[in-house]
Amino acid sequence: MTALPPDIHGTIVEDTTIAARAGWSRVIKKGEMMRIIDLHGKQAVDFLCWNAHDHEDRYAAADTMKINETGIFLTTGTTFYSVGLTPLMTITADTCGSHDTIGGCCSAELNKFRYDVDNQTGCRENFLAEMAKVGMGKRDMAANINFFMYVPVSADGQMDMGPSISKPGDYVDLRADSDVLAVISNCPQINNPVNDYNPTPVQVTAWQP
User: Fold this and answer.
1) In a domain, 36, yes or no
2) Which of 50, 54, 152, 200 lies in disulfide reach of 40, CB 3.0 to 4.6 Å?
3) Does residue 136 surpass a pLDDT of 60?
4) What's the whole-number mean pLDDT along residues 90-111?
């Protein structure tokens, strides 16, 4: 566990280091705060959330982009909406400034298809392992957020998994606008530059202000 930043005030409910390539999940209650810290920089953090009381009410990437009218990148002030238009979480602080909504998550199948590597699991498998703890499965998956991950899109619409732009210590703060189930996959990808080819740990702190 790292020392708590001096700007976090309130009752700490969790302070956890998520190992490189690992998953994590927790219910964040309405009004609680959550900080994700990229400890070493250039580490993608795949993220999903659901209404904690209705797992069919999952994060909706398209509706989040349309309602916020801020394009494909998320940053301070962005509210995450569910398929039922429940406000789930809002970014209240962001030292990185650009988080991806369109790249999705890696998986064993995608690693085989794109890079011809066998038995190399990804974020999809991490998500499913955490989701299984509360009885969810593949049908409950949704398009995810990628914190600290840069997916550039050119003028002709081409996209690529670009190198991360986050620095050591960059963080994003999230406020729970409803009771939410938050799930993280600390991305294990080593075949493209989203983690600088070197997955590293991240820190998650949750607190009640």
Assistant:
1) yes
2) 200
3) yes
4) 92
